[in-house]
Amino acid sequence: MYNVQAMTARWLLFMLLVLPLCLWGCGQSEITTTTTSTTSTTTVKSWQIVGSAGFTGTTEVEEAIIATDSAGTPYIAFSDGLPDQKPAVMKFSGGSWSDLGSRGFGLTTGSDYTSGSLSLTVSNNVPFVAFKTTAQLLAAKFSSEAWTSLGSPSWTQAASFPSIFANTSGQYIGYQLTATTQANIKTFIDPSWGVVGTPNFSDGDARYMSLYVNGTTPYLAFSDFAHSQRISVIKYNGIDWSYLGSTGGVSTDSVAWPSLFVDSGTAYVALLNSAETVSVMKFNGTNWTLVGSAAASAGQAGFPSLYIYNGTPYVAFADAAASNEATVMKYTGSWEVVGAAGFSADAMTRGIERTVSLTISPAGVPYIAVRGQHSGLNRLTVYKYN
């Protein structure tokens, strides 16, 4: 017969003395308990200056045009101040802005350059520019650490309002030929420029071009002086030029400097209406319709800059309701402010000049170039939303 009390006592003794020794000395692994603390981190985005404010120097500049390459590196084009007043491109690298090649691109000393005519695009990490001289249009690309001329799209004829666009299908320029005042588009077929479709395809005087090439299909928005200076958009279907909607049908008012973007075959245009508020229009296949139920800006604004990213329209402008500083809006069922309204430190002039330019990097980072009053002079500052 078992003595239960004796057995219990021996078992307890074994547990207290023998088992701990076995655990440490009988080849068993040490048991470690790790407590992991999970912390929720909220990242707040804001507009940040890229480099330094007013980085373009101590002279006044004209216009502001920004683009990024595939790595998200920003490039900025502008016309530098007097006395030379040359077209220039700068690149942000290593924490600062520096000239990309020589100012004037080796094509103009400034004496024959028309300020305010500069256009910039970046494709396959190569920057391209177009600009007007007193005699003709000129174009260039930056490769092998230098600017190389692409010749004159208008040959020896005077032309105005160039808008350059480049993609994998080539380089294109839309412009007004001075002799006819009508719209033309050419494409660069090395070593010269060739006409796309029929030349002089607008009904009459066409100004303030905005060119976009969707694949191999060029679209051109312009102020159509043959139709009360309203905005028209025309595209080349491979055979002929055709208007999207009616001529002058994008706007009901006379408008300068439309901003065109084509997203998956759908054309959008940002413009100022008669109340000087920003509207974004979309072509639905038949007519131009307003994006949203109201204007994108809360009040009067300067000429807008439009970009579509992953189907979402973004528009930037000088905002009169925010002391003429920069505001960016995006449309996600309604128009909403990106970051804060009037985030730029330097007020802009709401005139005929293009004082704001918006782009979005392939990674989805918005960049905006602002030409505003900095230390008493019109200089450039670039911001990114990150």
Provide the domain count: 1
Named CATH topology = Neuraminidase
Number of helical segments? 1
Q: How much of the sequence is in beta strands? A: 35-45%
Radius of gyration: 30 Å
Give the strand order of the largest sheet, numbering strands 1, 2, ... along the chain.
1-28-27-26
Shape: globular
Quantity of strands, as a count: 28
- Helical content (DSSP H or I, runs of 4+): under 10%
Low-confidence spans: 1-36
Return the average pLDDT rounded to an integer: 88
Order of helices and strands: HEEEEEEEEEEEEEEEEEEEEEEEEEEEE
Q: What composes the largest sheet?
A: 4 strands, antiparallel
| CATH architectural type | 6 Propeller
Pairing-aware structural class of the strands and helices? mainly beta
* Cα distance spanning the termini: 82 Å
CATH class: Mainly Beta
Describe the structure.
- By secondary structure, the protein is mostly beta strands.
- The protein has one domain (47-385): Neuraminidase (6 Propeller), CATH 2.120.10.10.
- It has 1 helix and 28 strands.
- It has one helix at 4-25; strands spanning 47-49, 62-68, 74-79, 87-93, 96-99, 119-123, 126-132, 137-143, 146-149, 159-167, 170-177, 183-189, 192-195, 206-214, 217-224, 230-236, 241-243, 259-263, 266-272, 278-283, 288-290, 305-309, 312-319, 325-331, 335-337, 356-360, 366-374, 377-385.
- The strands form 7 sheets. The protein has a 4-stranded antiparallel β-sheet, with no helix packed on it.
- The longest helix is centred in the first third of the chain and has 22 residues, at 4-25.
- It is globular.
- Mean pLDDT is 88; it is low at 1-36.
